[in-house]
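User: Need the bound-state model for cobalt (II) ion:
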Amino acid sequence: MLICRTSEEIELLRESNLLVSRTLAEIAKYIRPGVTTASLDKIAETFIRDHGAKPAFKGYGGYPATICTSVNEEVVHGIPSDYILKEGDIISVDCGVVLNGYYGDSAYTFPVGEISDDLKKLLEYTRASLEAGVREAVAGNRVGDISFAVQSKAESGGFSVVREMVGHGIGTKLHEPPEVPNFGKKGTGPKLLKGVVICIEPMINIGMKDTVLRNDGWTIATADGKPSAHFEYAVAIDSGKADVLTTFRFIEEVLNKK
Ligand code: MF3
Ligand code: CO
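Assistant: Bound-state model below.
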C-alpha cells in the first residue's frame, strides 16, 4: 500500500527537501583538500538546527552523525571522521532532516579539487542515471520503469549498479514503501500514483557491482576497492512530469564560484 500525499503534505515535504538542498550547498562551500569529514558533519548539524529542523540520520538505527560522508571506494553510510580530504578524492554526502514532521533526504557526490577524467565520467553518468529515473517517475508507470531507466543509463557508460541498497518512499518516516531499486525490468513492481513521494538514489561503481560492509558496522564499500558515486532526489509523482522536491541548483551555484 503506497501512501498518496495531499498537496498540503507535498508542500511540507518540499520545505524539508529544500532545507536538505540548502544544507548540501552549505557543506559544498567547505569541501576542499585539507578538511576533515567530521568538520563537514558539524557544519551540517549546526545549519539544520539553526533552521528549526533536526538531523534525520542521527540516532536512526544507532547511526552516530548528521550526514554520511563516503569517500572514493566507499559507496554509502561512511561515518564522518578525522579523515582529511585530499586533492583528487570524490566524496558522497548524504543528508536527511525532519521539519514539521516531514522528512527530507538527498545526496550529492562532490569532487575534491581536480579529479581524474574517469571520475568525472562516473559523476556525470551517476547524475544522468538519476535524471533518467526521474523521467519515468510519473503517474501510471511502475517502479520497475524507473529502475530500468537508471540501470540502462549507468550501464551504457560501462558502469555497474549497486544492488544491496535501494531508494524508498519518504514522508512522515525516512523510509516508507515502496523500495526503489536501481536495476530491474520495465512494467514490473508497484504502480505509481499521483501523490506518492519517493527517493531515487543510484549508487554506481566504476568496477564490479559487489560491496562489502566495513567493521564499523555502517560503511558500505566496493568489494574491488574502485570508486563509487551516489546522487539522490526526493520526487513527488504527478501526471505528465515528476515534481522533483530536491534541487541541486544551490550546490551548483557554490561549485561554479570555486
Ligand atoms: N539516504 C540514506 C538512505 O536512504 C540515508 C540513511 S543513513 C542512516 O538510506 F544513517 F540514516 F541510516
Ligand atoms: Co535515501
